[in-house]
Amino acid sequence: MKRLLTLILDGEIDQGFDATLEIRQGDLHSPSQTRIKGRLSGNRDLLNCYRHWQQRYLSLEMLFRALSANPEQVTNSSQRGEAFAACRQAAEVLEESLNHWLNTDPEFRSIRDKLLGSGKKFQLLLQTNNPWLRRFPWHRWDLLAEAQADVALSAIEQISNAFPHLAYGHATRTACQVGVKEQAVTSR
Using the 8-state DSSP alphabet, how is residue 106 labeled? Predict the structure, then answer.
């Protein structure tokens, strides 16, 4: 069974993030074996790198949209090549900035070291309410790529917080039972 690591980042890109790493053997409902707290500093430069990459990527879309609108249009292949190269370079800068931020922040080191010691092929659930963090290319963090980790993103709030009187498993079974009953009624 794969280990599930949950990294909770709560904060803002300018002020930084309170970070908590929880390690479980099994799924999200297994008890936490380890909990480590840390902090990840704010990084406005990373956000600027993301926006720059996004602009380059959108320029590719506009280039291809213009080409598909008029198929007889004579295209300048050097313009396409330059647009691809600029987008690729912006993606590399974004990846380098993300890795530098996550690998060099001294207050985040304890969490990073625990992730490094988690072996290969674990699952990482990144929970944050920050919309910018959810857009970053976490799969390109060299630590996760090297560990061949599966990465998923979610908001910090979980379904168990929305329905505290129900256990998560009961809510799932109830939803399935309702579906079966409806199916039985419609098939008569």
Answer: G
Q: Which residue is listed with tokens 């598909």? A: 68
Residue 83 has pLDDT above 90, yes or no: no
Do 56 and 138 touch, CB atoms closer than 8 A? no
What is the tens place of the pLDDT at every residue in 116-144? 888 888 899 999 999 999 999 999 999 99
Contacts of 140 (CB under 8 A, 6+ apart): 95, 98, 99
Query: How far apart, in whole angstroms, are the C-alpha atoms of residue 45 and residue 5?
Result: 27
* Closest CA relative to residue 38, chosen from 108, 112, 129, 130: 108
Contact by Cβ (8 Å): 22, 8: yes
Q: Would you mind telling me the total number of residues written for the chain in this entry?
A: 188
Token pair for 38: 């840390």
CA atoms within 13 A on the CB side of 11: 16
Give this prediction's pTM. Answer: 0.74
Q: What is the pLDDT at residue 169? A: 42
Residues paired with residue 135 on neighbouring β-strands, in sequence order: none
Kindly indicate the confidence band of residue 62, based on its pLDDT and cuts at 50, 70 and 90: confident
Distance CA 62, CA 66 (A): 6
Type of residue at 3: R
Q: For the CA atoms of the chain, what is the radius of gyration?
A: 22
